[in-house]
């Protein structure tokens, strides 16, 4: 970056509505901290925006000063793209407004909102849109990469429910994108990962959900994993859209419904959510109990917002994280064999393999309707390496990489862009598949100088 004169920084600070942090300032370290403790980058400046006017000012300043620019929403991205070294970090985390139009069933969401912020506001009216599974995740990053969660089989990907965005592009202009306004930009924004500008407001379609629904966990011993995983794979091929079941292989956390003797032992768990009449859901999930002899279960009717936060304790910030991910059309015997092989040698008590069921409505959208194009993905596997100390780094990363390579022959095309780690720039074109060439054209039009490049980058030609 160009080294800034103090007078230049002071002038910017005087014109900016929010705080501007330099490395020696109180609040700097707190502002640069993000969810993944593997990321320890130090921006030259952090501009903490409180308004759209602040975003415009920050974009113009970063561009005019030829600075490296990163953008922080919720700060949850596994690759740590919210933070850059020696550049300008544009921090949106304080822009957390959510407005719900009950009559239109629409939500207008600020770029600093987390899933918890959005869910809380929408569920006051018994409404929701498909989001992720960890309530501390930022809505902005989740959405821009595609977004999926418990409601996706019934209501689609998060981007399938995006109606419009307000954005500040690289030239500092405020722009709206929708199906009728700048449709090329809207196409790219739905899955393009923040490559085209900074979204300052998202408009989402909402759906009646809950506020209470059937959800919970069934936990089986790992020595029954072959039976559980195989039957999970076949059961999920025909389940109705209202039902979603994810599979998790890990060491058992100290859940109150499990005997103490099970805590810390390897297990395979089914995480269940039924977005329909709970009584109908109870009948549908009854066969799951025959998959094995469970250690225990905790399944019942509870508020949707509670279920959205159920995994937060296992995904709290401050741990070291490294992910690898594949998409699958079908969980074949070979996929199951690899998952069980590596599930039997988890390198840390916090590591896990999860297989998310999507399909349903997510697969009924044309593959070229938007930048997110992996419409044949019925399952997304996340090899989630998670540990506590830097001494464990190499061992845990090698386990994740070896698992990824072993599963690669059985994966489908594309990849979920939000699960790509910082060292996977070579997979970006593969992740987008046939959409990539069109994305390059959108990038050339809206960010020809690649100002927004601290991301899973789409290079402008």
State the gist of this model:
The protein is of the alpha+beta class and 461 residues long. The protein has helices spanning 6-15, 28-32, 52-64, 115-123, 139-144, 152-155, 183-189, 225-235, 278-285, 304-308, 333-343, 393-407, 428-432, 436-446; strands at residues 20-21, 45-48, 69-72, 88-91, 98-101, 106-109, 127-128, 162-168, 174-178, 198-205, 207-208, 212-221, 243-251, 266-274, 296-303, 320-328, 352-357, 379-387.
How is this structure best described in words?
The structure is a single chain. The protein is of the alpha+beta class and 461 residues long. It has 3 domains: 6-91, Uridine Diphospho-n-acetylenolpyruvylglucosamine Reductase, domain 2, CATH 3.30.43; 98-209 and 433-446, Uridine Diphospho-n-acetylenolpyruvylglucosamine Reductase, domain 3; 212-419, Vanillyl-alcohol Oxidase, Chain A, domain 3. It is built from 14 helices and 18 strands. The strands form 4 sheets. It has a 7-stranded antiparallel β-sheet with strand order 15-12-14-13-17-18-16. Strands 5-6-10-8-9 form a 5-stranded antiparallel β-sheet. It has a 4-stranded mixed β-sheet with strand order 1-2-4-3. The two termini are 23 Å apart. The model has no long low-confidence stretch (mean pLDDT 96). Keywords: FAD, Flavoprotein, Oxidoreductase. One of its GO terms (molecular function) is FAD binding. Its cofactor is FAD. Belongs to the oxygen-dependent FAD-linked oxidoreductase family.
For the biggest sheet, the summary is: 7 strands, antiparallel
Mean pLDDT: 96
Shape: globular
| Rg (C-alpha, Å) | 22 Å
Beta-strand fraction estimate = 15-25%
CATH T-level topology of the largest domain? Vanillyl-alcohol Oxidase, Chain A, domain 3
Q: How many E-type strands? A: 18
Level-1 CATH class name of the largest domain? Alpha Beta
